[in-house]
Amino acid sequence: MTTRTDNTDFTPVDQDLYAAAFQLLDPGPVPEPAALAAPVQVPLTTAAPVRLTGPVEKTLTDALAFLDTHGWARGTLIHPEGARCSIGALRAAAGARNSAYCDAGNLLLDEARRQHGTKWQSIPSWNDSHSGAQVRSVWEAAIRRAHHLNI
Asked: Taking a C-beta distance cutoff of 8 angstroms, is the pair 58, 144 a contact?
């Protein structure tokens, strides 16, 4: 391919305008001030921001820890040997039927429906119809969601 450059139909470029436009697109380094009054003091012990665990995440995490410690049960709220079903673990972790307990239960049931279908009307019915591994998977996903939602 041959390109001809002897065509005189081009508009001449104003070199000063071209240089100014280029400077706007790619500015050079900002010149440093001639002298500073005093050096800026930066504290050496800046702590990273602390992320607080929300009450729902804490309730879910504590309930799963309870299941890990005392065991998981199906068909009963509390097994004679101390194991509990999912709702029993939530009750133990929350200590009372407070808003964190209700929100954690709603989040857990919502996650159970995501993973196992929308037919589940309650945590006990879902808990009693699934294996321990399936139940644990739902617990872990609910904790991740609570963490992500910062609740």
From this structure: no
